[in-house]
Amino acid sequence: MAAALLAVVLGAAAVACTTGNAETQAEGPGGALGGAQAAPSDVVLTTGAARQSPGVVAAGGPGAPYNYGPTVMLDGTRTRMWWCSQYPTAPPPGDDILYAESSSLDGPFTGPGGGVPPAVLSGNPGQFDGVHTCDPSVIRVDGTYYLYYTGAAGDHALGNAIGLATSTDGLIWTRANGPIVAPSHDEHRDNLYGVGQPSAVYLDGWFYLMFTDTTGRDAGWNGAGQFVLRAKDPTFATGVESLTDKGFAAVPNTAAPRMTSIVDAFSADLEWVDALDAFAIAHETQDGTTVTFWNRDFTAHPYRALVIPGGWREGPGLVRRPDGHAPASATDPCGRVPFDVVRATSLGDANAPTDLRHYGLDVVGIQGCGDRERALGVLDGYAMPSPVRTMDLVVDGKLVRVDRRSVAEQLATHVLNQRLDALDGVPVAAHLASGARALQAPGLGMGLLLDDGKLWPVHPSTVAALNGSAVEAVSAAQWRSYPEAATLGR
Fold this sequence. Notes:
Elements: H1 2-17, E1 46-52, E2 68-75, E3 78-85, E4 96-102, E5 119-121, E6 132-141, E7 144-152, E8 161-167, E9 174-175, E10 195-203, E11 206-213, E12 227-231, E13 241-244, E14 247-250, E15 269-273, E16 278-285, E17 288-294, E18 306-309, E19 314-320, E20 336-347, E21 353-364, H2 372-378, E22 382-385, E23 391-395, E24 398-402, H3 405-411, E25 414-415, E26 428-432, E27 438-441, E28 445-449, E29 455-458, H4 463-466, E30 471-473, H5 476-480
Parallel strand pairs: 2-19, 22-25, 24-26, 27-30
Antiparallel strand pairs: 1-21, 2-3, 3-4, 4-5, 6-7, 7-8, 8-9, 10-11, 11-12, 12-13, 13-14, 15-16, 16-17, 17-18, 19-20, 20-21, 22-23, 23-24, 27-28, 28-29
Organism: Amycolatopsis acidiphila
Keywords: Signal
Signal peptide: 1-22
């Protein structure tokens, strides 16, 4: 009886959070549908350094019959991954979101401390996501992790919707109230999936959310298609704009008609590539993962699509920075962009996708730091010598001068021993002097007061001692009395 019940539950989970037609082919290099009929660019990107993992990089623990739909984040010295699976021990029976981390893209990915990957989000009985939570997309903005995911209360027609949860560590999550995006019901097709498979990016103060909606007006005959909303509110409750064939336009709410699909695909992933000044969408096609490029307004293709070859079974997860941007090369940040994905490569015992593996290649020979704005985006998190024997650290599009090299090394994702010309002429926004005041407030963490008069949240907290800064305990009200700047640290 138990085995039979488990088989029924596993089958139901596959119906709830997969589209049932994963091998959709992109329509040409641009992969555009409906209103987004931009012609492909003639600009061909040069690629090299193709790579793949020697084997499976991540899997759930005992009883996890499938593993797919990953979101992958380069977070300091760790590569962090959340994906869709199912644990018999995680109630209620249904899809769970698992978590693991590694020092390498080739794994092995394990739970914190080297254990079995834990389930960090499961069904919430009685709510819209009462049975299934799947298809995670995680970004981090100003110290808060945002998890966008597919939720379903069961397996009834069009039952999927998109939910949001937040966290301070990426492990313990607090759900927002109700779904933030539901099916638009523009048109009902044979595919009854509904809304899901979200992918989030943070760019210029906007939260971008790409997702599947099989009821969207501009979806394909089989429900395939990817739609985009953006808002400065991460919950998408206010100030929502929807992508149209003429760019973004304000809409009353997230249920506005889905007029423009940007790629003919299910289970796609989105990132912003600072060095190319373009969005990139990873989606599966016959030969592997196709990466399709759009300009900032999704009105034109600035480059021809490229393909990361190799076997696959279900949706790629792009390896991204915490804000959903493409990482820069550690050795050649202005001339090379790594494109890496983790994707399911086989069908397991439950006839659902599993065996997560890593594939990648580099785009080479570009001028990624050709202007100041692009250079500051590409070099976010980089530290390098300043012209005055200190260190310059790029943080959220600004240049922060740091007195102590040891502090800059602690705060940076990459440290260069030679200064890049791309930063010449960029003004210093703030100066982190030795012994700068360090404030700590209950529930708000630690921040450093710099000479611009702003409080810069910082982590890890050991930076204060490294900088020779005495820590002052303050109230939350005192903390909030200072203008808050971007977060320093990884």
